[in-house]
Structure formats: structure tokens, C-alpha cells
């Protein structure tokens, strides 16, 4: 007699991936961004991150105690025809981990979405919750690690486990021409992803810095990687990153993305 397992609604919607090897297989097998988003949202391959994101979602911050937290990995946001990708660090515990949308519901998100709006890449300057009317044009926003990490610090192993998701996401953007990387962690995480995608990576690997610009060649055509300080409060409150500095990077990204018609 065959016993069929009954899946919960969440398990049916978000297929569970439990191991690093499973992440590799699931990412490689995905052909559509919408499916990739669902698979990312069901990932449980990093036990430390799973425990933390779920604890935060249960305990909550007092100011959000009446809200239902997402408490899952956070997928990317933006259309499949995007020519620009913006890659950050990881969801915030009470931001993306709460709202279920990348860079949404925290001060970092306030900065990046306002900048995308000023650059003509978003239809509004704010992102507060899923269903708030936000639409992105020509840009896809994602993170190197998809779960909120303790102390906002993923381990190298967690970064590497998550990297196939990012690799597949970028691969499913056929018009991609520019990647804007927010912060040194994302900068480090990106190079193995691009090398695996067939891009020729300079050696030694380029050093991160605000305004850094690296031109790459590959079978899919040219790609430019731009560096920017992360939109963290540590940088924005101290003036290490200002609005004009961030705007300059995104202006450069749009210039480069449009240069090939």
C-alpha cells in the first residue's frame, strides 16, 4: 500500500529545499523567475538562519506585535526583462523578514527605493508592504543571502549555500547588463556567481569601493559591476553614504544599461 504525504498549503506553495546540494539542484532546474521565487521562499538549507528567522517572526518587535511576520527566505523583486540588478546583503530581521519583500519595511529600504524612484526605476519612492502599489522598471533587487541572519552577519558557508539562488536569478535575466552591489559582503559573494556563469573575472579579483566599476565579458555579452556602500544605517546616519553618492551610482547604471539599446 502506498501512503501519500499530505502537504500543507505552505509546503505546496513553497517547495522545501533542505540541503546545500538540494539548493544546487533546485536552482539549476528552475526556468522561470516566479518559480524561483517560490523555491527560494521554501528553502531551509541553513539551520542557524532558519532558527533565527523563525524566532524573530514569533517573538516580533513590540512595534510590530500585531503583524504577522513572513519568517521565510525573501525572494527578489523586479521584472524578468530588467537590465539592472541591485544586490544587497540579506533581509533585515524586522524588515524583509517581516514583510516578505526584499529591502522593505526598514530604513535601508527607505534609502534604496527612494533612490530607485529618483533614477526612474520605480513608480514610487517607498516600499512598505506587499501590495502597496510598488512597481520596478528595468531593475531587479535581490540579496546575496535570503534569510535574515543574527547580528546581520551571515557566515561564509551560509553565503555559499545561498549563492546558487542568486546565480540562477541573474541567469534568468536575459537582458542583464549591469549589477550594482551594495557593500563588501555582496561584492565578495558575487564573483564566484559570475565566474560560474562564464564571465571572465580579473585576477586578482577587483577590490570593493564606492564607485568601483568593473567591465566583464562573457558568452551572454558584456556586463558591468558597480560598487556602492551599503544603504545600512551605519553608513547613511554617519554620512559615509549620501543620497548624491547613491544617485550617482544608479545614474551610471542606467547609462550603462541603456548604452546597448
UniProtKB/TrEMBL annotation:
<dbReference type="GO" id="GO:0004844">
    <property type="term" value="F:uracil DNA N-glycosylase activity"/>
</dbReference>
<comment type="similarity">
    <text>Belongs to the uracil-DNA glycosylase (UDG) superfamily. Type 5 (UDGb) family.</text>
</comment>
<dbReference type="InterPro" id="IPR005122">
    <property type="entry name" value="Uracil-DNA_glycosylase-like"/>
</dbReference>
<protein>
    <recommendedName>
        <fullName>Type-5 uracil-DNA glycosylase</fullName>
    </recommendedName>
</protein>
<feature type="domain" description="Uracil-DNA glycosylase-like">
    <location>
        <begin position="75"/>
        <end position="250"/>
    </location>
</feature>
<feature type="transmembrane region" description="Helical">
    <location>
        <begin position="178"/>
        <end position="201"/>
    </location>
</feature>
<dbReference type="GO" id="GO:0051539">
    <property type="term" value="F:4 iron, 4 sulfur cluster binding"/>
</dbReference>
<dbReference type="Pfam" id="PF03167">
    <property type="entry name" value="UDG"/>
</dbReference>
<keyword id="KW-1133">Transmembrane helix</keyword>
<keyword id="KW-0472">Membrane</keyword>
<dbReference type="InterPro" id="IPR036895">
    <property type="entry name" value="Uracil-DNA_glycosylase-like_sf"/>
</dbReference>
<keyword id="KW-0411">Iron-sulfur</keyword>
<keyword id="KW-0227">DNA damage</keyword>
<dbReference type="GO" id="GO:0006284">
    <property type="term" value="P:base-excision repair"/>
</dbReference>
<dbReference type="InterPro" id="IPR044147">
    <property type="entry name" value="UdgB-like"/>
</dbReference>
<dbReference type="GO" id="GO:0033958">
    <property type="term" value="F:DNA-deoxyinosine glycosylase activity"/>
</dbReference>
<keyword id="KW-0234">DNA repair</keyword>
<keyword id="KW-0378">Hydrolase</keyword>
<keyword id="KW-0004">4Fe-4S</keyword>
<keyword id="KW-0812">Transmembrane</keyword>
<keyword id="KW-0408">Iron</keyword>
<dbReference type="InterPro" id="IPR051536">
    <property type="entry name" value="UDG_Type-4/5"/>
</dbReference>
<dbReference type="GO" id="GO:0046872">
    <property type="term" value="F:metal ion binding"/>
</dbReference>
<keyword id="KW-0479">Metal-binding</keyword>
Amino acid at each position: 500500500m502506498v501512503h501519500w504525504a499530505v502537504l500543507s498549503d505552505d509546503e505546496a506553495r513553497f517547495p522545501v529545499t533542505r540541503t546545500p546540494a538540494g539548493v544546487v539542484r533546485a536552482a539549476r532546474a528552475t526556468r522561470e523567475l516566479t518559480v524561483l521565487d517560490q523555491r527560494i521562499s521554501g528553502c531551509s538549507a541553513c539551520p542557524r538562519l532558519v532558527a533565527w528567522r523563525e524566532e524573530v517572526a514569533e517573538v516580533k518587535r513590540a512595534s510590530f506585535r500585531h503583524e504577522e511576520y513572513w519568517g521565510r527566505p525573501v525572494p527578489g523583486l523586479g521584472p524578468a526583462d530588467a537590465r539592472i540588478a541591485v544586490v544587497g546583503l540579506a533581509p533585515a530581521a524586522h524588515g524583509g523578514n517581516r514583510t516578505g519583500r526584499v529591502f522593505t519595511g526598514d530604513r535601508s529600504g527607505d534609502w534604496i527605493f527612494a533612490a530607485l524612484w529618483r533614477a526612474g526605476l520605480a513608480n514610487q519612492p517607498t516600499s512598505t508592504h506587499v501590495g502597496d502599489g510598488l512597481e520596478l522598471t528595468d531593475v531587479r533587487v535581490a540579496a546575496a543571502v535570503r534569510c535574515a541572519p543574527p547580528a546581520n552577519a551571515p557566515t561564509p558557508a551560509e553565503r555559499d549555500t545561498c549563492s546558487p539562488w542568486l546565480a540562477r536569478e541573474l541567469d534568468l535575466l536575459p537582458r542583464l547588463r549591469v549589477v550594482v552591489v551594495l557593500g563588501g559582503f555582496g561584492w565578495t559573494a558575487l564573483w564566484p556567481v559570475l565566474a560560474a556563469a562564464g564571465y571572465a573575472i580579473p585576477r586578482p579579483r577587483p577590490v570593493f569601493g564606492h564607485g568601483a566599476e568593473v567591465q566583464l565579458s562573457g558568452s551572454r555579452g558584456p556586463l558591468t559591476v558597480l560598487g556602492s556602500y551599503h544603504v545600512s544605517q551605519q553608513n547613511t546616519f554617519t554620512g559615509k553614504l549620501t543620497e548624491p553618492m547613491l544617485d550617482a551610482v544608479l545614474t551610471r547604471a542606467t547609462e550603462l544599461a541603456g548604452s546597448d539599446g
